[in-house]
Amino acid sequence: MDAQTWPVGFRCLLLLALVGSARSEGVQTCEEVRKLFQWRLLGAVRGLPDSPRAGPDLQVCISKKPTCCTRKMEERYQIAARQDMQQFLQTSSSTLKFLISRNAAAFQETLETLIKQAENYTSILFCNTYRNMALEAAASVQEFFTDVGLYLFGADVNPEEFVNRFFDSLFPLVYNRLINPAVTDSSLEYSECIRMARRDVSPFGNIPKRVMGQMGRSLLPSRTFLQALNLGIEVINTTDYLHFSKECSRALLKMQYCPHCQGLTLTKPCMGYCLNVMRGCLAHMAELNPHWHAYIRSLEELSDAMHGTYDIEHVLLNFHLLVNDAVLQAHLNGQKLLEQVNRICGRPVRTPTQSPRCSFDQSKEKHGMKTTTRNSEETLANRRKEFINSLRLYRSFYGGLADQLCANELAAADGLPCWNGEDIVKSYTQHVVGNGLKAQSGNPEVKVKGTDPVISQIIDKLKHVVQLLQGRSPKPDKWELLQLGSGGGMVEQVSGDCDDEDGCGGSGSGEVKRTLKITDWMPDDMNFSDVKQIHQTDTGSTLDTTGAGCAAATESMTFTLISVVMLLPGIW
């Protein structure tokens, strides 16, 4: 035996000798018991026995030997045993709860930033391409993305309604500033009539329907994902403070503190004894295990499916491109729309006006913007993947909780003398039951009765959220979504991958390929005038548009268009 291992071995031998002595001859003083009782702040030591004596009034820690405990001590020990159990549960779940709560907060913060970035892209579109309607469009753009955020974070708003509201408010601007430029009606009634006519004349073709489809397919899964994470935190918080039955409390007292009454303050329970007590106390909690497993599996399936048309990052950051397509389509059909609006609303009172434009700060234009390219590992999809990989390790958390507590915290190591509920023994000889309610009928240490209403309520919530998660996960096979455009019925084949209708393939203005280079978020106080340029590259030319000035934060973006870039007359 070397110099390092000798002291450890000596202490173990000394401990065994002391335990053996205590077992054979009985404890002679209660001094250590009194010190530990006071150290745990269980009460004053006044009135506690100085030496072992008979304990006829004890209810749980009953022994034929003299005892260091009184009835009041036993009551205090029972409270301490329940508190210890709650502390063990909270410690065991702390890493899991932190994992979920941290990621729930991070996902919400990322989505908030993503919404702000998408709003900025849309505002930049108006400022740099449709500057004469930018200020008037600002309120509608802001309202639209506010509704997106409200819906994502659980508010009772309808995506179809706020998409329609956005395009309804956009049509009068496009009509007055682009189709019938530089003239307007002196009253609001005429603009309201144009707004109400939008759904009849369909100036934007099927693009509003496409936006509804994309928003529905991407926002709802993200909303459900966030709600499910919050439920996971609720489940853990509930089980951390679970109420223990009278039978469990007595069993915990007997296992943890009854040895103190015999002066055995360093003794730990036998592994089998600990498993019976803990599996009995946590039998109802173990019933959560299959539902918790299904919860994590459903989160994983939904996360895996959130790509392409189900990827909120792709949909929001490309929303401004669909808005641009919508405005282009209305402009191309301008003469037809002019005739339709005149039939519905009559001819306007033609009063020449000065079109309001974006404010422009020359001092900021020359400074440009500092941008830092985001790493691909920082995307929302990759964050979800990392989170799910970590969460997968906890799929059987509730099924193995009793065993984990005994192995890591409570039970004596193999081969050491241990407490069996009555005395110090070499090993526990009673039958050891399994986990779950059904296995507890033969538990020699804890009587488990009925069901726990709190656990039953949690199970119902988990079942419900699993149904929601599975309902938001698209099936592998393609499904059909009926969409009605301006020209009649159209059936769109939709899958999890990005397709033509979602802005990754063809569109009404020609074959389009769009890629987006995402850069880090800019400070909230940065003005659009800090934007240096937008690069729009078609098949043979490059257009650099310098300008800015809408009052909101933004960042630069790069996208590729394989199409004809149309510079429309009258929009500057």
Automatic annotation (TrEMBL):
Enumerate the residue ranges of region (Disordered).
355-375
Location relative to the cell:
Cell membrane
Keyword field contains Glycoprotein: yes
Q: Name one GO cellular component term.
A: plasma membrane
Give the residue range of the signal peptide. Answer: 1-24
GO BP terms, alphabetized: cell migration; positive regulation of canonical Wnt signaling pathway; regulation of protein localization to membrane
InterPro entries assigned: Glypican (IPR001863), Glypican_CS (IPR019803)
Residues in a coiled coil are none
Keyword terms of this UniProt record:
Cell membrane, Glycoprotein, GPI-anchor, Heparan sulfate, Lipoprotein, Membrane, Proteoglycan, Signal
Superkingdom, natural source: Eukaryota
Say if the entry is tagged with keyword 4Fe-4S: no
How does this protein sit in the membrane?
A: Lipid-anchor; GPI-anchor
Give the similarity note: Belongs to the glypican family.
Reported function = Cell surface proteoglycan.
UniProt-recorded name of the protein: Glypican 5
Which gene underlies this protein? GPC5
